Amino acid sequence: MKPTDTSVDRDAAHERLARSATITLASQRDRSMYAIATAVLGVALAGLMILSRALDSVWQTALLNALFLAVVIGAEQVVERRTKATPRHSRRWLMIGVGGSMLAALFVALPVLNLRAQTASPSLVMQLVAVCGVALPCWVAAIVISRTRR
Amino acid sequence: MTQTPQRHARHQLDSAIHSPVRFSIVAALATVDEAEFRHVRDRIEVSDPVLSKQAYLLEDAGYVKIRKGHVGKRPRTWLSLTRTGRKAYDKHLDALRAIAEGQ
Q1: Which chain A residue lies closest to B24 (C-alpha atoms)?
Q2: Could you give the CA distance from residue A126 to residue B89 in angstroms, rounded to a whole number?
Q3: DSSP class of residue A108?
Q4: Which of A99, B33, B43, B58 is most buried (most C-beta within 10 Å)?
Q5: What pLDDT shows up at residue A2?
Q6: What is the C-alpha to C-alpha distance for residues B58 and A1, in angstroms, rounded to an integer?
Q7: Is the Cβ of B17 closer than 8 Å to some Cβ of chain A?
Q8: Using one digit for the tens of pLDDT, what is the confidence trace for A50-95?
Q9: pTM score, two decimals?
């Protein structure tokens, strides 16, 4: 790259700082799309967890996993088609949300439901609470993504 | 004991970022993780060739990453700032602030 004259006066510095503070590429629509995708992934993960407990056939489990994969790929495709920019830190929050949901499923919801299943079948309310508990990290991440301004 | 003379803040300005178009590109990309080429072009109001040339210059400097792919059958290009680019931009802004404050 050619060396350029980097001299700049105070007014020019003010003007550039003002420009840098106002320019933005991510719209509210972009943020909403990423937030919705994150929330949907949380529900899909929770659904995968609950439904996989109810299935005993290998084929049914394989079909359920394929369905989950389709939801993930579909969400990714919709987001890529409908957004023009990836809001700052939204991917990081998405990964934090999905990671948190997976941890909640593996180390809290599934052990509790399996423990309960040893004496009686978990009630519908208990399963609903488990679904919400698993999806919660993704929902929190979705709120953070939608509320981040820049 | 000798004291090192303090250099004027303009010496801290990054020549790769300093040009108006490149500054706008970097300033815009600093607000996102990644953005589509056409969207950046529209927001900073430059033509395709101008953005392309300046983006490649920034890529050569190690400040911008250019990713090419497809959405459906349509080819798309995405631009993002590298970690080095973000650090350089922050340093450039610090120098501008120092100049604005008359240091």
Answers
A1: A20
A2: 51
A3: I
A4: B58
A5: 45
A6: 9
A7: no
A8: 998 888 889 999 999 999 999 999 998 899 899 999 999 999 999 9
A9: 0.83
Residue B59 reports pLDDT greater than 50: yes
CB contact under 8 A, A17 and B96: yes
Contacts of B31 (CB under 8 A, 6+ apart): A23, A24, A25, A26, A88, A150
The pLDDT confidence band at residue B101, using thresholds 50, 70 and 90, is confident
Q: Is the dihedral of CA A13, A15, A19, A22 positive or negative?
A: positive
Mutate to test the interface with A, among B11, B24, B25, B32 (most CBs of A within 10 A): B32
pLDDT at residue number B5: 56
Angle at A103 between CA A97 and CA A107, to 5 degrees: 155
Using a 10 angstrom Cβ sphere, with 0-12 exposed, 13-18 middle and 19 or more buried, the burial of residue B47 is exposed
DSSP symbols for A91-105: HHHHHHHHHHHHHHI
Task: Identify all chain A residues contacting B33, using CB atoms and an 8 Å cutoff.
Answer: 86-91
Amino acid at B53: K
Half-sphere exposure for B72 (CA within 13 Å, toward CB): 5
A63: helix, strand or coil: helix
Phi-psi region of B69 (alpha: psi -120 to 50; beta: other; left: phi over 0): beta
Answer yes or no: is pLDDT of A150 > 70: no
pLDDT band at A3 (very low <50, low <70, confident <90, very high): very low
d(CA B79, CA B40): 8
Output the six-digit token pair for A99.
């990671």
